Each structure stands twice: as C-alpha cells, then as structure tokens.
Amino acid sequence: MEAFSDEAAKLTAELAGSTPARIGVGRCGTRPLTRTALQLRMDHAAAVDSVYGVVAPELLKEMGLFTVETLSGSKERYLRRPDLGRRLTDEGAALIREKCIMKPQVQVVVSDGLSAAATCANIRDVYPALLDSLAAYGLQTGTPFFVKNGRVACMDHIGEILQPDVLVMLIGERPGLVTAQSMSAYMGYRPRFGTLESDRNVISNIHARGTQPVEAGAHIGTMLAAMLEQKRSGTSLVL
User: Fold this and answer.
1) How crowded is residue 34: how many other Cβ atoms within 10 Å of its Cβ?
2) d(Cα 185, Cα 182) in Å, to the nearest integer?
C-alpha cells in the first residue's frame, strides 16, 4: 500500500509539472487550501480586469496604429452582442479608406478582443517579428491599425473595404484562470462577407508561458506566405 502511495505521488507530481492546470494542489477537508483559494481569486480578478481593460493610447501610438471602432460602442454591448463586434462603424470604415493602402498584399490588424491585457503584453514582440518575417519572404504590407472592441469576423468587413490578398488579425483571447494575457493570430486569404470559419487559420495561446510571441510572429509570416502561394486558407491550406 505504501509503495502504491509513493508511485501515485510520483505520477501526480509529474502530471502537475507538465501542465499549469490546478492538479494535486491539496485540500483541507472538503475545501481547497487557503493559498489555492487565494490564487484562484487572484487569477479570476485578472481575467475580469483583462476583459474590461483598455489598450493605452501611448502603446498604440508607439506601434504606429490608428484606432477604429466596431458597432459595439461599449464593452457591455460588446459582451452581450457579439454580432456588433463584427462590423465597423461608418466613421471607422471611412477612416480606413482615408488612411490605408488599398488592395495590399498583407493587411495587419490588431484588436483588444476579449483581453486588452493580451495586446499590451505581446504586441511589442509579435508585431516586429511578424514584419521581419514578411520582409524575409519579400511580402508587402498595408497600413496597420487597431480595432477597439473587435471580434474575429470583423476581418471580413475590413476585407470588403481594403480587399487585401491576405489579412492577419492579432486579437486578445478569452482569458482563463491560467493566463489573462493570451493572444491569437487569425489569418485568411481574401476575407470577405460570408467567409466560413473553416476558411481561417489561427495560431493561439501566444503568451510568455505558451507560444512565444517572437516565435509566433515569425510563424505567422510563414503561414501568410503559404496562403499567397496556394491562394487559399483554412482547412484546405497545406503547410
């Protein structure tokens, strides 16, 4: 029985060491340990803060990104009406037409999505690495910008306006209790209204403890180059 307990403890330790999930954290009677309960509350608070947070204008200026908004208007409407986050305001669409290069080879868009903290934590590493990767492939980029309260499918509205060959949206993921700073990169070949989710590709879990931001930026460039070469994206893309 003691040997079995030792083996079980070893396996539990190995499992706990292989994942950030809360495994083998112990308990006191029917309740979690105090340190576990406090950590859980702290991580939950960080997740809530990331959803309701904002990306500092100073950071957007530093990255050379102007801002447009979706029809959501407020964070509360954004959360309750996902459809409004898929369309830009008329003012935003007009600003894009005014400031952006039309029909670019590669269009880069950044959005807070469901985690402003993800944008703040990763954009300084992901974006320069992406630009370096695109330059290495000899690809031309359009005018980047930031979408406030954006959903993934607003890339289709942007595609209708700018008509890029490929578009990548760097967007904050829904936060969890492991991290509130996870970003995703959604990509598509000629996104337009009616694009199916199966026509998109994504690199997810971009953060310091997941897919490293610099590595992700480089890989995004590789995927975009493949889309341009094959003239397709999504499940039919061969990598």
Assistant:
1) 9
2) 10
In the numeric block, which tokens belong to residue 204?
């997810």
More confidently predicted of 122 and 27? 122
98 half-sphere exposure, CB direction, 13 A CA radius: 9
Is the residue at 96 inside a domain? Answer: yes
CATH number of domain containing 123: 3.40.50.11240
Q: Could you tell me the residue range of the domain that residue 60 belongs to? A: 56-236
- Which amino acid, one-letter code, is at 237? L
Is pLDDT larger for residue 180 or for residue 178? 180
Task: State the total domains in the chain.
Answer: 1
Do residues 169 and 105 make contact, with C-beta atoms less than 8 angstroms apart?
no
pLDDT of 49 reads: 67
Contact of 149 with 76, CB cutoff 8 Å: no
Give pTM, 2 decimals.
0.85
